[in-house]
Amino acid sequence: MKHLEEIVNGNDVSFEGIEASYFLLGLLSAFDNRYQAKADSFFEDISWKQFFVIICINLCKEPPTIKELAEIIGSSHQNVKQLLIKLEKKGYVQTLSDKVDKRKQRIVLTKKTRTFCEAHDEESAKIVQGIFEGIAPQEIAITIKTIMQMEKNLEDLM
């Protein structure tokens, strides 16, 4: 697979005349696709999207419902449910009834997930460090701020 820089600077595609905002959206989409492909090859047992679900559950102060998790992930209830079904079959998550409202189902991580995360923690950190090699913390902060504003603007459009 060609590096994105080769595509942008190559002769096969012309980005001449494209506004920076359109170009940025395209870059974000292309990066997401490339990152997902690389990350999918990193884990043997689960996909990047499944691991992202685990990360998001782990960030929650209390076990989330599917609806809460879908909001955090930015995906539909149905898509998150499908990811959770696969994770549950593999033993990474468990669904439990809410103690107060029995109609709600809470998603909890299993011991298998904790073991999995511990086993991959060091290598994951190296990969993230490698992705951000040569990028100053201030640039990362600006990128975060920009994407957060884009997210807010997107919500306001809907």
Verbal overview:
- The chain is mainly α and about 160 residues long.
- The chain has two domains: about 1-40; about 45-155, Winged helix-like DNA-binding domain superfamily/Winged helix DNA-binding domain (Arc Repressor Mutant, subunit A, Orthogonal Bundle).
- The protein contains seven helices and two strands, in the order H-H-H-H-H-E-E-H-H.
- The chain has helices spanning about 5-10, 20-40, 50-60, 65-75, 75-90, 110-130, 135-155, and strands at about 95, 105-110.
- Strand 1 and strand 2 (about 105-110) form a beta hairpin.
- The two termini are about 35 Å apart.
- The mean pLDDT is about 90.
Could you write a compact summary of the structure shown?
The chain has 2 domains: 1-42; 43-157, Winged helix-like DNA-binding domain superfamily/Winged helix DNA-binding domain (Arc Repressor Mutant, subunit A, Orthogonal Bundle), CATH 1.10.10.
